[in-house]
Amino acid sequence: MAINLQKGQRIDIGLSKISLGLGWNPHEGTGYDFDLDASAIMIDQNRVIPEEEYFIFYGNTDSPDGALHHSGDDPTGGNSDGGDDETISVDLAKVDGRVNEILFVVTIHEAAARRQNFGQVRDSYIRIVDDMTGQEIAKYELGEDFSIETGVEFGRLYKKDNHWKFEASGLGYREDLAYFLAKYYKGQIIK
Amino acid sequence: MAINLTKGQTIDLRKNDKGETFDLSQVTIGLGWDVRQKGGGGFLGKLFGGAQEEEYDLDAIGFLLNEQGKIANMGRQFTNSNGRQVNMYEGDVIYFNSMRHPSGHIWLTGDNRTGAGDGDDEQIIVKLDSLAPTFDRIVFVVSIYQGRKNNQHFGMIENAFIRAVDRSGKEIARFSLSGDATFNGMCSMTFAEVYRKDGTWKFRALGEPHPTDNFVELLGKYR
Question: Which residues of A touch B8 (CB under 8 A)?
Fold first, then answer.
């Protein structure tokens, strides 16, 4: 049974293992591939990443504390047939003490150059699953919910009184990954 | 410090996307670039010598890192034949004052341009398959010697590339690292890295610029 959170709705997670799954189906036409990316930004109390390695994406698949692992880049959506093509697994027990929020975003790589948006991608979704129970906590159909957008702030895990909660944000933007990263990282971003 | 969001820059050194395999017993990392002419060009400029091509002294540097991403051996002090004191001699940093690693498996060619390095301005040669297993990653840095003093920076450099060539001279990979306004005022660059993954070596072009013209300032991250 999936519990589909409404935007802004919160749920208790505790200290467990969860996975973020991003799935979509490859382009069947002759145009560009759709290259969706799942990323996680681990944020400290100053609202920035404590170190560059706490930004988890296709170019950095493991956080130094061992809490987050990204399965790696799928540039076409062909990794699985109908299932998750990119996953980020989270072990909340291992999260570095400085981190009190983990933000998950999905973006379309080169969306501007390829003139793409989520509305064109077939069967795309982002979901978060409790690995202990296998239960789906939240899921968005990207093509339905964010048709004209190119980047989605999916949701955030945040720590309150040493307890983790998940809040579904579901905010769509016509922006790229650098836009999200720049909010929490003051260094240089090479695009 | 920078985070690089560019993609498609990681390749398996053992085979390319055409399935060709390579001989990694010796890999040459070659760097090349052209210097953009400063203003004052045109016919009259040439007539009066206004478009002098400036001298650029770029240095290639290699950092050998262990599994923790650190330089295990920073080398020692050494007085060379000119009586000059040199630091970081015979350590895990390959640079103009310490061109050959004590293992003999990685070295900087200096300005020696052999046939295999046609077009390369600097080369670091590494016998990847012979490197001790304690070496997990090699980071390649290029800096403009005295760039700050001479007002030279990577924004002035055109057609910069880094490539990897296998023992037989076959080009494994080549990446362009030029033509970006973000390089203005930047006097050094983390060009690329090779690293072990799943029993093979991978090559990744980075192109991360830094303001400093002194690579020693970049060492902090790896110590």
Answer: 75
